[in-house]
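agent> fetching stored inputs for the P-hydroxybenzoic acid docking request
agent> found them:
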Amino acid sequence: MSIAAPPTATVGPLERGLSVLCALSAPDADERMRHSDLVRATGLARATVDRVVSTLARLGLVRSDGREVWPAPRLMELSGAYLAASGIPAALGPAVDRLADEFDESVSVAVPDGDGVRFVVQAARRRHMNLTFRIGDLVPADRCAPGTLFTGGQDWAGDDQLIEPGLVAVAVPLRDPARRTVCAVSVASHTSRHTVQSLAEAVLPRLLQRRGTLESALAAPRATAPSSAPVRDTSPAEKRELGPDYLQSLARGLAVLRALGADRGEGMPLTAVAEATGLARATARRSLLTLEQLGYVGCARRQFRLRPRVLELGCARLSGLGLTDVAQPHLADLVRRVHESASLAVLDGADIRYVARVPTVRIMSIDITVGTRFPAYATAMGRVLLAGLTPGERPAVDGRLPALTGHTVTSADELTALLDKVAADDHALVDQELEEGLRSLAVPVRDGRGRVVAAVNVAQHAGRGTPEEMRRAMLPELRQAARLIEADLAALEPR
Ligand code: PHB
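agent> prediction call returned; pasting tokens
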């Protein structure tokens, strides 16, 4: 017998917050939604939508320009919590990548979710006319290869263009030591290359041969969760400062969801959730019951765990975001503060390549656009990127470097000394070495493991003041922009 929770046990603001996040994440939702669209999509009152949006924006989960709202990369932390707790991407991700290389076809992993399956790992091969599912996508069980494997006991299943003309796939189940099907691995192809039968003949023997290894990886004991940013309840002082629009119980419920990301397969008891969130047991319990009722959390033998439905909260839309999408809004904010152009670049051999840019006035003789390349040694972003490499990883310098202006540092030894200084200072300022009249200040952008993955800069005309003045005025702003980009990238990174 199950005892239904009394209706008063659920947390209304949490339920309403999740329905707004769902509406923003719906596969057919516009990229940005107006508050009135959200009213229509959720059936909530306008004032409620306003308060929910303002709370979600405070939490960094959505962005809003006052008129329109859209999901922020940080929303991916919720999906990241499920993916980390499930252990599936960590256990199978590398093997799935290798299988995709070996077969030269898309390989994915899906888990059961209600009447459908949800994709949790995807190694896509971009091919003409091929739709592949994104991480977080929910597909009706009868429209894809893995669907039937969770109900029947078959060894494999095929998809003969069930979801899309031309798309064929075969899938095999992966079971836990108790022989329950945990997930399914699919290989997807196109009718221009395979029929279901020929795909099965080509890949099944090897998939079945690997199954033991994949199942062992799934069953292997997992490392304990890395300590993510502590989930901490708002203090009364903060609550006063946040004002009456801040829905504390929504914030608390989402903190509970994130805290469950620390589960490493056994589930978490109420006490552990209360401890991780700093919430009173009764408060944590109400959030858990609400989340359970809405299908985001499961509970067995008093252990709570996240369910795949969490991926409904922005995952499919956000998991494909790249560096450019993440950086662009932060560059725009930076430009608003410093009134100079800002860009983001990555290292590409001995060059930097621009991947995002927000211009103000043009101060270079050539137009810089996304894709523009410059020699790394003569640019501030390049020096920051080179300084992030070990000396062995840096591109070799053969003799002297070409002088691009009368100021360019051309001696390899001098450049090495400069790079050591850039590494120590954690920023670079380059004055008219790439082009006369152009000065640039750059700082590194690091991933969750501390590796420099990009550089962000502001550029100004050398006539605007001294290099020292530029550093004083802009370095703190630049560092702040880099920190925000890093936080968004960390939210998108698999844990
Ligand atoms: C995919 O990974 O894109 C995929 C998987 C199973 C299908 C179809 C496509 O049935």
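agent> quick read of the result: Residues 106, 108, 132-133, 144-146, 159, 163, 167, 169, 186, 188 surround P-hydroxybenzoic acid (CB under 6 Å).
agent> awaiting further instructions
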